């Protein structure tokens, strides 16, 4: 019989509370790195699976880095002991950077989910991760969208959702849980390296804030992120509506934009720009176009990535390619 802990109850409650994160009968691919958070998540989902009638499998992504030796086999043996299917992707000559690893990992997980028809990929991101991501993005400069990062659920493709079911559980809780069940936690040495800003936030900044400002700072930051998430969703929807009325092929109507609040203008322009640019727009590029909403006729931006420029033509901002296309 499964020993039921407060974390089991917490997850069960979270899933029942109406966010429709993981419905009964779902096919769920659990991304397990071998660290404490994803092992805890895997065990919790395994124990809850009979109540929810889920089909679960474990996925691991092997970066083939020198620091990762042996971890794929360990995750594989955990999957075996849980009697769950195990799927492995192995990288080929991956750059040793966090960003490259993350990008490859999500691609690899989506590939497995596609091949094996899993509509849900779940990761072990915790409340502590959310607080750290909040600070990381705040320090680098972010709008509400960046601060609200790490949501409970988002679509990776039309058919595959990424779900983070333990976003209200702290990292110290996942550690206690793993110890209680004697799960073989793998300690990633990269997490100890102070070269990475994220590690310094976790090891130095958060404890400093806890000791000197607010013992509950992780909770407070995660709560702010949660509040902002709802604001962002609302504002994005309003911006989408504005874009529908203001856009006519590659033009934006200035009087429609002018009638909207600045926050919505910015978002509508940010939603539109990727259609005429080769990259995601940065703050400066969005502001340059926002400036054209009230600028004199014939004003223009400098060339945007991909070669297009935006120019005022009466009541319109027109996006055109200088090469004449
Ligand atoms: N090598 C891996 N194989 C499978 N899943 C992984 C692997 N590494 C990370 N994950 C999944 O991602 C979760 C978050 O891990 P981690 O915080 O190291 O990633 P991250 O790249 O910082 O994530 P994010 O950028 O989304 O915050 C883990 O709990 C686990 O579910």
TrEMBL record:
EC number(s) on file: 6.3.4.19
Gene Ontology biological-process entries: tRNA modification
Keywords: ATP-binding, Cytoplasm, Ligase, Nucleotide-binding, tRNA processing
Enzyme class: ligase
SUPFAM superfamilies per record: Adenine nucleotide alpha hydrolases-like, MesJ substrate recognition domain-like
Main location class: cytoplasm
Residues of the tRNA(Ile)-lysidine/2-thiocytidine synthase N-terminal domain: 27-203
Cellular component terms (Gene Ontology): cytoplasm
Catalytic activity annotation: cytidine(34) in tRNA(Ile2) + L-lysine + ATP = lysidine(34) in tRNA(Ile2) + AMP + diphosphate + H(+)
Transmembrane segments: none
GO MF annotations in UniProt: ATP binding; tRNA(Ile)-lysidine synthase activity
Cellular localisation: Cytoplasm
Binding residue positions for ATP: 33-38
InterPro entries associated with the record: Rossmann-like_a/b/a_fold (IPR014729), TilS/TtcA_N (IPR011063), tRNA_Ile_lys_synt (IPR012094), tRNA_Ile_lys_synt_N (IPR012795)
PANTHER family from the UniProt entry: TRNA(ILE)-LYSIDINE SYNTHASE-RELATED (PTHR43033:SF1)
Recorded family membership: Belongs to the tRNA(Ile)-lysidine synthase family.
Chain's role: Ligates lysine onto the cytidine present at position 34 of the AUA codon-specific tRNA(Ile) that contains the anticodon CAU, in an ATP-dependent manner. Cytidine is converted to lysidine, thus changing the amino acid specificity of the tRNA from methionine to isoleucine.
Domain free text: The N-terminal region contains the highly conserved SGGXDS motif, predicted to be a P-loop motif involved in ATP binding.
Name assigned to this protein: tRNA(Ile)-lysidine synthase
Organism of origin: Waterburya agarophytonicola KI4
């Amino acid at each position: 019989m499964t020993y039921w802990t407060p974390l089991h109850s917490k997850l069960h409650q979270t899933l029942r509370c109406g966010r429709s994160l993981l419905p009964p009968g779902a096919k769920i691919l659990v991304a397990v790195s071998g660290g404490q958070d994803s092992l805890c998540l895997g065990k919790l989902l395994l124990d809850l699976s009979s109540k929810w009638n889920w089909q679960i499998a474990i996925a691991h992504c092997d970066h083939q880095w020198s620091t990762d030796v042996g971890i794929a086999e360990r995750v594989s043996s955990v999957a075996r002991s849980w009697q769950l299917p195990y799927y492995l992707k192995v990288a080929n000559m991956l750059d040793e950077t966090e960003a490259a690893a993350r990008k490859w990992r999500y691609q690899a997980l989506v590939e497995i989910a596609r091949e094996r028809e899993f509509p849900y990929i779940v990761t072990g991101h915790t409340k502590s991760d959310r607080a750290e991501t909040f600070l990381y993005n705040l320090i680098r400069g972010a709008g509400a969208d960046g601060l609200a990062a790490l949501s409970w659920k988002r679509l990776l493709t039309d058919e595959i959702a990424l779900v983070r079911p333990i976003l209200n559980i702290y990292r110290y809780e996942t550690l206690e849980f793993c110890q209680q069940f004697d799960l073989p936690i793998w300690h990633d040495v990269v997490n100890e390296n102070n070269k990475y800003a994220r590690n310094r936030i976790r090891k130095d900044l958060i404890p400093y804030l806890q000791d000197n400002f607010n013992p509950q700072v992780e909770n407070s930051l995660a709560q702010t992120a949660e509040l902002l998430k709802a604001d962002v969703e609302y504002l994005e929807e309003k911006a989408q509506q504005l874009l529908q009325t203001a856009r006519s092929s590659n033009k934006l109507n200035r009087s429609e934009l002018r009638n909207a609040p600045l926050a919505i203008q910015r978002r509508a322009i940010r939603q539109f720009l990727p259609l005429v640019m080769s990259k995601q727009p940065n703050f400066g590029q969005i502001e340059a176009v926002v400036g054209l909403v009230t600028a004199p006729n014939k004003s223009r931006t400098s060339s945007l990535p991909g070669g297009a420029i935006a120019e005022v033509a009466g009541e319109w901002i027109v996006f055109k390619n200088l090469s004449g296309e």
